[in-house]
C-alpha cells in the first residue's frame, strides 16, 4: 500500500463484510491508515469495513469519509458527532481486481482489531437494525447544547465569513459595498466545495439584509434634513431620539429605551398594524450633529410595547450590537433610521447556523453540493427495510402489510385511497434519503405528507429520535400539525404563537412547560446564569444611580470623588465651602454641597421630552395577522410575551445640570479645574464646569457599564443554553416536533442535540435555500422536501439579488429539480372544476388531470346567478393609479368587483365562500373600503388578500383583481409566472378575473395563452357555447333565465340580484313586493307600506309595516297622563337648572311649567317620552345594528379612531327603478368620477378600518333588504 495513505486524516466506511470471522490474507500486524495514527481498537462493529483513503488518488464516489477525530483506534467518539462527506455514486463493479483485493485485506485487518459487540451511534457512522441497540440510540450527552455553542465559536476570525459577528458592523452599513463583492449563486451545476457553497449563501443572505439599510444611511447622509417622503416608502427616519432608560433583560442582554419623534414621517402611526420598528429589525443611529459623517451605531429593536409607542413622544427598546458601542447619555440627541423592506431577525439565525454547519459534517453533501442525481435509501433503511405500511393501505385489504420490504417488495396492487402518482410519491418519501415531491395546485401534497408521517410514526419505537417537520409559515404548520394530531398526540410545536387554540396551542413547548405533566430537571447552568444576572442587575442599578430619574438630586460630591472627576482637595473645598464666608447653616448632604457651590447656575432638566404635533394617521402597512406572524416567529420565546422586556428597568435622566456659557471651551474648563479650590472658580463659569464634570461622570459610568453589559450578555447566552438544556428532556420524549423554516435555524442547537434522523419540510419551494440547508444536522439520514417550484418563489429584500448571477430567490427544491435530481410529481388534482383547471395548461401542460370528484356537479355545483358561466374574464380599459404608498390600484375595477360580490351574496353565496385576491396591497385596501361602505354588506367579514399571502389556500369562488391598465405595457407583479400560477389555481367552482386583457396579452406570453383559452381561437370550438371573455359580465336570472349584461358598476343598480322583470310577488305581510326580480326570499324584504292592521285596542296601526305596531290615539292619551304625573316633579326643580345631568341648552331657552333654560330636546323628552322610540331597536333592524355595536365596542378598547354610527339612515319611500335612475338631488346615485374623488378624500380617515372590521363576525342569516336600498345603492 502507498505510504502516503498512512498520513491521511480520513477513514472511509465501505462495504460490509460477509461475516465477522471471514478469512483474509491480511496479516494482523500490517499497518493501515488507522493504525498509522496510533490506533488500536476502535469499535466499529463487525458489520462495517474500513479502508484507508489514498491521498494520491481521487476518492471514488458513494463512499463515506469521516474525519479522524481520534489519535488511536481505541479512543472514544467525540461528544460533537462528526458527519460524513459523500462523493458521487460508484459501485464495486468497475473496480480493478487489485483495488478490490486491497479493500478486502484492509477490511479483514480492521475486523480482527475491532472487538465484536459494539455499534457506533447512527450519527457517527451508521446504525444497524441487526443490533438491538438500533431502537435505543445513544442519548445526547448532558452537555450537548453547551458543546454546540462552544464549537460554534471555535473560529472567531473576523476576516473570514465563518467568524463574522451576527450583527453587521457600522463599516458594513456605511461602506459603499461589501469588501469582497457579492458571490454568484450556482444553480445548474455542482459546487466546487462545501466551503464555497456555504460561504456564498452566507454572503448573499448578509447582503440581502444589510443592503437596504446601507442605501437608507447613504441617502440620509446626502440629504440630512429631508422628510421621509424624500426617501423610498420603506425608509423610516426618526429624530429627537434620546435615551431615557435601561432594562437588564434576562432574555437578551442590556436593552436601552429611547424616546423619539415622528416629525419626519409627518404622520401618526397605527402601531398595531405598522411594520415600523418591529422587534428584531435593524436600525442605525448617528448623533444629530454628525449625520453619519463619522459615527454610526448599529442596534436592533428589542421590544416595542404598545403602551410605550402610544405615548407622545413614543418609546422603543434597543439592543446595541456590541457592548463597546453602548450609549447612555440622556443629553445626547440622535437620529435613527430603519429600512423596513428587510428583516434582520429572520436572517441572523440562518447566518449563525451556516457558520456552525461549516464546522461540522454535512449529510447529503453528495446531492446538495456535488449534484449526485441517483439517490440511495437512508442508512437506517438499508439495514432493515421492513416497514409497517398498514396505515397507508385500505383497512378492507385481507393481506397483511405490517412487515413489508419497501426496498425490494413494494406492494404494487394494494388497495389504497391514494391515486397512482401519490403512491409513487409515498414510496419515494419512505425509501429515498433525499425525497423531492412536487405537488401542483390541488393535487394533495399535504395529504401525501400526512400519510407518510403516519406510516413513519407507526414505525417509531421508544428511544427513536423525534421526526422533525417544518413549514414556511405558521399557518401552514398549524394546519399540518392539526392533521397529525388526529392520529398522534405525542408531538410538540416549537416557536411562534399558534393560532390553533383547540389542538396545536396545547402542544406548544411553552404549554408543556406550564402544564406540569412533564417536569424537566433544573439546569444548573440556567439557575446559575440567572443568579449572576440578578447580581449584575443590582450592580448596574447602583452604577447608574447618579443618572437615576426621580432622584431629585445632583451628582453628590462623594460620587465625583469616587469616580475620580474631582481630586481630594477639590472635594474638600466643596465640603468646607467658601472660606471667606461663615455659614452656620452649612448643608449636611453631599448633593447640597454641590448645589450651594453652583448657586444660581443650577438648572433643572425638564423630565418631559418634546411631544410631537397631532399629525393625521398614516396608512396601515400590514394586516394585523400578518404582522403578528412576523413578530411572533422571530422574537417570541414559545408564547412568552414578546411585547415587553423582562427584567429590572432603570429610568435615567440628567435631572439637573449647569447653565453653560456657549463662549467657553472645554480647554478653558480644564484650565479652571486645575485649581484645588472649586470656590475660586468664578460663579458665572461654575455652570459650565459642572456640565463638564457631569459629562466626565457619564463617560466613567459608561466605561464600567460597557464591561458589565458584556458580562451580562455572556450570562444571557448561558441562560439560553440552560433553557435549551431544560427543554431537551421534554422534546426527547416526543415523536414529532413541528417548527417553521425560520425556527429550524433559531432552534438548531436544540434540534441538533436531539439527533434526528428524519426531517420533512413542507412548502420547501417557498423558502430560500440556506434555511433548508441548515436543517442538515450531523445526525440527519433522511430529508424530505415537499412543494412546487412553479408556484410562489422565495422572497428577497433586494430585487437585484433575485436574478442572475445571484439567484437568491431559487429554492433548494427548485435547484434540485433543475439539476435533474430525482423527484416525483403529483398529477391528479381534486380542487378545480375542469373549466378552471384548463387555465393552468400554459404552466403545467397536460401533466395535471382531473379527479372524478371535480367533474361531479353535486360536489361542485355551478355558481348561482351565472347561468353555468363558472369562469369569466371581464376586460376593461379603466386606467390604474397609485396610492400614497406608490402601490398600484384601480378604483373603477374595485367598484365593479364589489358590486359583483354583492350580486353573488344576493344569489345565496355566503361571505366565507368568496375570496377576492389581488397582486397589490393598495388595491386590497381600496376593495376593503368599498366593501365596508356598501349598504347591503354591512357587518360582514370579507376575505380580501394579496396573491403572495394566499399560497396553499382555496375557496369556492375567487374574484381576481388584476389592476394594471396603462399605455406603457407595464404589468409589474403580473409578469411573474409563479404568481400567475397561484392566482389561477385558488378557485374550486367559480373564478372571475377583472383586468385589461389586451394589455396582459401584449405584455406576457403566459397571460396570452390564458386569454386565448378563455376567448378561444378563431374557428376553434370552445368547450362551452358561452364566451369566457368580453367587455361585459353576463348574468343570468335563476327565476326567469333572462340574461343581463353588466358593463359598468352602475348597471348593477338596475337589478336586485335577478333581472329587470317586476317581482309582483306577495310579502309575508300581504303587501305586494315592489322590487324587481330577486333571488332571495320575501321574508328578507323590508316593507315600508303603512301597516293598518287592527290592534287589540281596536284602533288601526299607524306605523310602517316593518315597524312594531303602535296606535297614535293611545299614545296621545298615555302622553297626556305621563305629563300630568310629572308636573309636580318639574315644578320642584330649581330655576335655571337643566332637568337632568348631561343636558345642554341647544339654541334658545324655553319654559315648561315654571322651568327656565330647558333645552328643546329636554322639553320633548318630558312632554312626549313615547316619541323617543328608536326604529333601530325594532326586531327587524337588530341584525344590521349588531355590527355597529361590535364596532363601537372595538372603538372603546383601542386608541384607533373608527367610524361611529351617528344616527340611523333615513328610510326613503319606495320608488320604481326608472324613478330611481332619473331622480335628481342628493338622493341620486353618484357618478363614478365623483366617487374617485370622494374616496381619495376619505382614505385618510378610514385607512385602518379594514382589518378591525374584518374581525366582526359574519351574520349567519342574510340581512333584510330595504326596497329603497335595493333600487338605490349609495357608496357614501
UniProtKB/TrEMBL annotation:
Q: What are the residue boundaries of the DNA2/NAM7 helicase helicase domain, all occurrences included? A: 418-794
Q: Which organism is it from?
A: Rhizodiscina lignyota
Q: Which InterPro entries match?
A: DNA2/NAM7-like, DNA2/NAM7-like_C, DNA2/NAM7_AAA_11, P-loop_NTPase, SF1_C_Upf1, ZNFX1
- Keywords of this protein's UniProt record, alphabetized? ATP-binding, Helicase, Hydrolase, Nucleotide-binding
List the residue ranges of the region (Disordered): 1-45, 76-106, 160-184, 1198-1267
User: Superkingdom of the source?
Assistant: Eukaryota
Has UniProt tagged this entry with the keyword Repressor? no
**Where does the record place Acidic residues bias?**
1239-1251
What Gene3D superfamilies does UniProt report for this protein, alphabetically?
Answer: P-loop containing nucleotide triphosphate hydrolases
In Swiss-Prot or TrEMBL terms, this protein is called P-loop containing nucleoside triphosphate hydrolase protein
Gene Ontology CC annotations of this record? nuclear RNA-directed RNA polymerase complex
Compositionally biased region (Polar residues): 1198-1225
